[in-house]
Design brief:
With about 280 residues, the protein is of the alpha+beta class. The protein has 2 domains: about 110 residues, Beta Barrel (Ku70, Chain: A, Domain 2), CATH 2.40.290; about 90 residues, no CATH class. Helix content is about 30%, strand content about 25%. The strands form 2 sheets. Strands 1-2-6-9-8-7-5 form a 7-stranded mixed barrel. A two-stranded antiparallel sheet has the order 3-4. A hairpin with a 2-residue loop joins strand 7 and strand 8. Helix 4 packs parallel to helix 6. The protein is extended. The protein starts with 5 loop residues before the first strand and ends with a helix.
Length: about 280
């Protein structure tokens, strides 16, 4: 059983549901790259050095301080962060219920699992099923590691998920980017081209199955690294041939032709998949 980040409650209206908060992210194998000196490949370390004495400090020697005047600090412990607002640090406080479909994925940042604690089983299940039936998400406030977040409580299979959101102010407005306007006729896009593009999209529609998608690049990188190991440190691994490299096209000459070919290839893949 993973360790709970904290234990508190989900609060909405007068209802309080005792829960534990758990990370929903899997700690899969990651490439552990080390920084090396280019001259002799010696490892480059990361040290916490006192700016006054130049002495290296250990984690247990460090505290958090708020600089209220230049050179003057208030030292804060984890207990101080909790005491500032006990309720906020122990509660997922739902303040609104909204249509889950209204929240654009650009706002989603990090998921956590919420699991019932003690006698919270019944109220937990009640909230979960109510969210499923209504298609709603609970917009909530929560403090994690001394920072307040806005998040949404969603029903996912048998569990409630707290997905932290980015604040609107944290998203850059895309006004500075040059993108085409929504008036397709001004861009010279014909109705027939739009119909073909829609047909291509419709031909590739599938049910959402998260197990279908994998990190293929990680495996390819591992294979490439193994080749370099087998070839020896100074050996040169064969580079990809020019025809294998994917080059961006400067301009699409015949959009209709590409759409038709894409639809044909999609139909062929679907027929092969259906025959298996």
């Amino acid at each position: 059983m993973p360790h709970a980040i904290w234990k508190g409650s989900i609060s909405f209206g007068l209802v309080n549901i005792p829960v534990g908060l758990y990370s929903a992210e899997s700690r899969e194998e990651k490439f552990d790259f080390h920084l090396l000196d280019k001259q002799d490949l010696s490892p480059v370390g990361y040290k916490k050095i006192s700016k006054r004495t130049g002495k290296e400090l250990k984690q247990e020697d460090l505290v958090k301080g708020y600089e209220y005047e230049e050179g003057r600090y208030v030292v804060l412990s984890e207990e101080d962060f909790r005491r500032a607002n006990v309720k906020a640090t122990q509660t997922v406080e739902i303040i609104d219920f909204v249509d889950a479909s209204e929240i654009h994925p650009v706002f989603y940042e990090k998921p956590y699992y919420l699991a019932p604690v003690g006698r919270g089983q019944k109220s937990y299940a009640l909230l979960r099923e109510a969210l499923k039936k209504t298609g709603k998400a609970g917009v909530a406030k929560v403090v994690i590691h001394s920072k307040e977040y806005v998040g949404v409580v969603l029903a996912y299979q048998k569990i409630l998920v707290l997905n932290l959101l980015r604040y609107s102010a944290e998203l850059r407005k895309p006004d500075y980017l040059e993108v085409p306007e929504e008036d397709l006729k001004k861009l010279g896009v014909s109705d027939k081209e739009l119909d073909m593009a829609q047909k291509l999209v419709e031909g590739m529609i599938a049910g959402w199955n998260p197990e279908k998608y994998h990190d293929t690049y990680k495996q390819e990188l591992k294979t490439y690294i193994q080749k370099k190991i087998e070839a020896g440190e100074t050996a040169k691994v064969e580079e990809a041939r020019p025809e294998e490299a994917v080059r961006p096209q400067a301009e699409v000459i015949d959009l209709m032709s590409l759409l038709k070919k894409s639809i044909e290839q999609t139909e062929i893949r679907q027929k092969k998949a259906a025959s298996k």
